[in-house]
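Hi everyone,

Forwarding the result from last night's run.
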Amino acid sequence: MRVISVNVAKAMPMRIGDRWVPSAIAKQPAPGPVSVTPMGLVGDEQADRSVHGGLDKAVYAYSTRHHPFWQTVRAQARVAAAGDPLAPGLFGENLTVEGLDEARLWIGDILRLPGCRLAVSAPRMPCDKFGAAIGFVQAVKLMVQSGYCGAYLSVLDPGAVSAGDPLMIEPGPREVNLRELFKSRLRSR
């Protein structure tokens, strides 16, 4: 497993239907090492701290393992051509990673990187900003059905992260599976 891209954004107005809302979902790759603090990546903002950011949701990681699925559904929705590559940060993720799988992640698992340590803290719950970023409103429903939610991470040891960094998982208590928690939270909505 490794980090493919480190992505950040400033909050900007985003059109959702007929309204404009602040959002920092439009993440872009950051050059060089990016500093990791307890509240997230330097240079990154969260527009709505009630659902993103803070100590428990400081960093968001999403796996390239799900890219073929999203390439297919975006082509079917006619918002992209078949096989079009997905830009790093498209899902609003800070870390685009290779090899991460929600079904094999547990709350409390530690992601060890050369320059910092992060802990799996929560699944990402999709919102209307996610649908707008992906290009079609049904994307929210598809994230729910697929369980391809990605992982929010808390920062255990601040430091730095760079594209290309290897990533290792140290098992936590293994009591609450990330994908199962995602599905459970959806049922309680």
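The mean pLDDT is 93.

Cheers,
N.
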